[in-house]
Specification:
With 247 residues, the protein is an alpha+beta fold. It is built from eight helices and seven strands.
Length: 247
């Protein structure tokens, strides 16, 4: 394929019927909704995550016009489309994703991080008020609560600060012996939280991205990159000897 032909095809890429968009004007993702929903549905069907999963934000580089373009100065690209991603820590397989399309209405968003985690992880219940209180709690103290399937810990690293974590992996109130006496749940979280960052690294190293001013195309390029890496994870899981031969 010639360079000119490649750009002709790229310029003609469309993912929906433009004439039907007015009927779907309330959906900010209408120009890419059908492809996005088909893709995200398949991600969960093809892979079972290991014991450790990580939830973090992925920024798809994009500087064109888009109503929900985000500015995140801590990310290398700084401007782009934000995707909340659930990754398997062991492989960085992208198991569940949620595109952030901005706040709904004029009301300010409250506890966005907690809301995203509740949506991306099923089974999260209302927290007991005892875990939310920090008054009269000693620094470096931990409080645990258990259900049949979940463990929640409340940890006070300093006066007035409360760190809450939920786990389906831990079933005992284990605390480290170091000076700050961090719960083992928090130590495991710190060890596992780089899953999405590693996904960003690998898809950035080998990417099909091209400069574009159309956000659906930018999302499509990221979809291809993540799908290719997920395919690599699936293939090496089915045939581990292939990876050893390439080493």
């Amino acid at each position: 394929m010639s360079h000119k032909r490649f750009h002709q095809i790229g310029g003609a890429l469309r993912f929906d019927d433009k004439l039907s968009r007015p009927r779907r004007h309330q959906d900010k993702l209408s120009a890419f909704r059908k492809v996005w929903d088909l893709w995200t549905h398949c991600l969960e069907l093809l892979f079972n995550p290991d014991r450790d999963i990580c939830i973090d934000e992925q920024l798809v580089p994009f500087r064109g016009r888009c109503k929900f373009k985000q500015y995140i100065p801590t990310k290398p690209a700084k401007y782009g489309l934000k995707i909340w991603t659930v990754c398997d820590v062991k492989t960085s397989y992208a198991w569940r994703v949620q595109l952030y399309t901005g706040k709904a209405g004029d009301r300010a968003e409250v506890n966005q991080g907690m809301s995203v985690v509740m949506e991306l992880t099923e089974g999260l219940k209302e927290l007991p008020p005892q875990l939310l209180r920090t008054r009269e709690r000693a620094i470096f103290s931990s409080a645990f609560t258990f259900t049949l399937t979940h463990t929640v810990v409340s940890y006070v690293p300093r006066r007035g600060k409360n760190v809450l974590l939920l786990s389906t992996k831990h079933r005992t109130p284990d605390v480290s012996e170091e000076e700050k006496r961090k719960p083992v749940i928090i130590q495991d979280y710190n060890r596992c939280k780089g899953g999405v960052d590693n996904l960003d690294k690998v898809v950035g190293t080998y990417s099909c991205r091209r400069k574009t001013n159309r956000w659906p195309v930018a999302l499509f390029h990221n979809l291809l990159d993540v799908s290719l890496y997920n395919s690599y994870v699936l293939w090496t899981a089915i045939d581990p000897s292939w990876k050893q031969q390439k080493a």
